[in-house]
Amino acid sequence: MNSAALAPKKKSALRQAVPFMGLIAIILFFYIVTEGRLFGPRTFSTLFNEFFSLVVAGCGVMFVMCEGNIDFSIGSNMGVTMAVAAIASQEVGWWVIFPITIVGGMLLGVMCGVLVSNLRVPAFIATIGMSFMLRGLVTIILDSGPKGCDYGFMVCNDITLKLIVLVIF
Description:
By secondary structure, the protein is mostly helical.
């Protein structure tokens, strides 16, 4: 091969390597700044807790995307169900959170599904519209302020339980 044919391959390899090198530089910077605490158990626990809800939501969106559609409302759906569950846990108890979040999330998802499949609204438009509507609903439900869950629900904030749920999903 001549050098002219290798030039595009080198540019492509460099384009792929630069973001990775940037990530390594950022990790090294924060490792030095935090004096090695970056790779402590607290960091990994926090990352796992943040990662957990994204994976669960991603599993649901995967089915929508396999059909060639898209769902922009999944985060707002989770927000509404969590807001309702937080208020219900204070009023009734933490055990009511699971049925409320599962049934509520399914109902909101079905609403998007009906808009797309029965009413033939494009998925992009239906889910973005639903996302904005649900964000407003969260603001109304929470009365523009934070709400907490019943303390008994902290039993469910266990990494072992979350790992089991991830394996099931």
